[in-house]
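Entry 14. Two folds queued back to back today. First construct below, sequence then structure tokens.
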Amino acid sequence: MITCHLRYVIDPYKLAEFEEYAQLWIPIVNRMGGTHHGYFLPSEGANNIAIALFSFPSLAAYEDYRTRMASDQECQAAFELDKHNRSIVSYERSFMRPVLG
């Protein structure tokens, strides 16, 4: 299993717009073979950092998801929403693996 960790720098004045964007992606990732663990929005501390976590069975499955995103209408609509809202300033993507005991 591979977990994608997305760290977003968001416009703190557009938190509602970012939340709308985030809510679109949870069912999309789940529909496309992943497991979305949720978005985590600012509460205390920095008001411009948000996190998303989702997993795929393998890096190959994640890469297949990324390929299919290009032709998926819901994915493209979500991207267009943020192009319009401009709530995301930047983001970083990291991949992690679990330590199972």
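Second construct, same run, same settings:
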Amino acid sequence: MLDTALVTIRFDNGALATAEANFQAVYGYDVRGEAFGSAGMLTMGELRRSHLTAYGPDGIAADCVGYDQDLFHDAYVAEPADFTDRVRTAGTPSVTGEDARAALSMALAAIRSITTGGPVRIDELQDR
């Protein structure tokens, strides 16, 4: 069983991305994202419930989210609302089956890379 994983992705245009995961984060559910480029940076996944930090004799403490339902509450509410709206209006969902297939292809490539110990091209998996 994996404790920690790091995936490096090289896009066709030469851009690089990394994703890391620790499956034993004892302090709670921790998912964050960061995009850094020549025009600036974007971050998401603030773990703190508020900007309050307590400094005391026992150390420093902040109230943080502990579950994915807390961290992604807005997304969990928006996804079914968007789907329902698209069904009512016969529109295309914001997230499609192709999006899900692309995410699955990336996950399968990462798993294959772990088992083979080498890089895996996404298009190698999609041809099957």
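Quick look at the second one. The first strand starts at residue 4 and ends at 10. The chain has four helices and six strands.
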